[in-house]
Specification:
219 residues, mainly alpha, Rna Polymerase Sigma Factor, Chain: A, Arc Repressor Mutant, subunit A, 2 domains, 63% helix
Amino acid sequence: MTDWAGDERDLVRRCREGSDAAYAMLVREHRPRLYALAYRLTGDRLTAEDVAQEAFLAAFKAMDRFDPNPSLAAWLNTITIRIARRAASRARARATPSLSALEDDGAAPPMGLGLADTSPTGDPAAAAEAAELRAHLSEAIERLPFNQRAAVVLRYMTGLDYAAGAEAMGVPLNTFKSHLLRGTKALREELARLPERGPAKGAPGPASVRAVPAPTRRG
């Protein structure tokens, strides 16, 4: 490992100087996260690959203008969201499996929904019910308008706080909160439409699942 591998500022400096090793390291460190973000925003593997690649190309072209505050990761998030926004409509036109179907066949990134308590408690019936709920949530997230989807993904899937989410989307804090509030409200309404089923061996049914948390307008 090079002596600059753990120094983000030095890594950026090396990239600006045209270092292939620095370029490779930056891609290796950030690509899994950017691909996962792009995938959640577009629901399409091929589109997510294209978005991640285009994001890195755009980042390297703009590297001289990079401001290390708050971080390289936050800057790359913003670029990825901007590109994913343009790509999302094209992704929907492709005849590819849905995001929920890809999750079922194991092709989705290792990034949980993080929106509900779907623990199957080891029971096959409960596990099937939890998988059905995850699939329903995935499909509901895909149907959200892009800004609402992005806010939900950034807050509940990547764990960004409100300020960081707003910065990643390039919108004022209150605008981010509005997108998040509308997105989570739509998801909660989707969950409420699920048919109530009797719990299997003490496992919680869909009606008792702790659904998407409602974001507060403050903080």
